[in-house]
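Case 167 in the screening queue. Each case pairs one protein sequence with one candidate compound; here the compound is flavin mononucleotide. For every case the pipeline is the same: read the inputs, emit a complex structure as tokens, and attach any notable structural observations.

Predict complex for case 167.
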Amino acid sequence: MSDFATNQDLDAARLRRAFGVFPTGVVAVAAEVDGELIGLAASSFTGVSLDPPLVSISIANTSKTWPDLRRAAHLGVTVLAEHQAIVCRQLAGPVANRFDDIAIKASDDGAVTLDDGVAHFDCTIYREVEAGDHFIVLLELHGVEHPESGNPLVFHRSGFPKLAELV
Ligand SMILES: Cc1cc2nc3c(=O)[nH]c(=O)nc-3n(C[C@H](O)[C@H](O)[C@H](O)COP(=O)(O)O)c2cc1C
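Case 167 output:
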């Protein structure tokens, strides 16, 4: 039995609020392409497969950054730490300032990771799947590093609540 009202208008604002009920972390997806640092913040990160090692992110097909980012030989993914809410907003803001005052490392293959963060992944694009107004991008992992402690940034209902306690 369902309590859903019929003929619901699933408009974007309503869906965004509903999706926002589900708490996530946030990653920075970044690379050096033609000598420029490019990247964006994404809360759509999910671990997908162990063999082969795959993760996914969903990227809006309106993204101005993705067409350049996808040209990188390797992409860096950094799981943001709890003190990086401002960094997260910056990585979603004006392109020219996204990496201002952020300490990064770039690999020889162009993968860019943030020095802070609770996990770092070195990736290549495995597959891109059209999914409505987004692409689901499957990324194959080539390297993983994560310290044994440190809390992640949490994104929930458009805000960044603190986790009370994690180990
Ligand atoms: C917390 C947070 C999570 C986000 N998650 C995503 C995401 O999963 N996918 C996406 O395409 N954009 C996401 N964005 C928006 C991008 O970071 C960026 O603002 C957007 O891609 C527009 O910039 P662009 O045109 O340079 O790509 C998120 C922004 C914030 C603040």
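Case 167 observations:
- The mean pLDDT is 94.
- The radius of gyration is 17 Å.
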